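Section 5: illustrative case.
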């Protein structure tokens, strides 16, 4: 079941609805193949249909929904091809970023990353998958921030929505948080040692994890995936 979200005045309504629906889709609270109703969602958030429509368009651009004229808006099934393509692009971007970060990351940012790792361990110990994934994203965002390249993380965020659904599904079976934390720690060690090669190799290995996890996840959740 989806979480109750509250609309605030701190950011545009359509952005908030997009973010809330994206979270529900990524965590499979809204199942692949589901029909999204503009009317039901506008009622859920107590808003007009226009911001909901705008959120649907943004979700479509992220590859999470398909808008079919006269039929409605459907949550896309997970595409293994999209996951593979997204991972390839993400690896290229983040490997380049982490190489620079090994040389440029400030002590303050490295301290923030260490704190983030502590919070990851806490979330894992509490079996809080949603909190863990948010901290995982924050860890990677801090690396991009450390080289002053916000566009790098924006690019990654725009292509990883489909990957995120697989990431969430793998946490309980294939890639438990503890193993991902160990991979993050290796990236962090490369950064604090100012070893660009070690940091880049650790990042590559970390982002390749999904290659090995997608097949068993697709087999266990066949109805949620597009045919191979």
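Designed sequence:
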């Amino acid at each position: 079941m989806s979480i109750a979200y509250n609309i605030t005045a701190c950011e545009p309504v359509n952005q908030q609805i997009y973010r809330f629906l994206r979270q529900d889709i990524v965590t499979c609270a809204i199942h692949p193949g589901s029909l999204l109703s503009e009317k039901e969602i506008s009622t859920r958030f107590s808003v007009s249909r226009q911001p909901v429509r705008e959120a649907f368009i943004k979700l479509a651009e992220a590859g999470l929904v398909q808008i079919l004229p006269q039929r409605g808006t459907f949550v896309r099934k997970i595409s293994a091809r999209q996951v593979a393509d997204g991972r390839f692009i993400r690896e290229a971007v983040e490997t380049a970023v982490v190489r620079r970060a090994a040389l440029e990351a400030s002590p303050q940012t490295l301290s923030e990353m260490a704190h983030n790792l502590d919070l990851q361990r806490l979330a894992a110990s509490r079996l809080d998958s949603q909190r863990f994934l948010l901290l995982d994203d924050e860890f990677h965002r801090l690396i991009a921030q450390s080289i002053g390249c916000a566009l790098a993380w924006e690019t990654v965020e725009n292509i990883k929505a489909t990957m995120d659904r697989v990431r969430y599904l793998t946490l309980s079976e294939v890639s438990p948080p503890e193993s991902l934390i160990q991979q993050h720690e290796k990236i962090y060690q490369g950064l604090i040692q100012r070893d660009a090669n070690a940091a880049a190799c650790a990042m590559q290995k970390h982002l390749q994890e999904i290659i090995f996890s997608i097949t068993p996840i697709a087999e266990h959740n066949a109805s949620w995936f597009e045919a191979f």
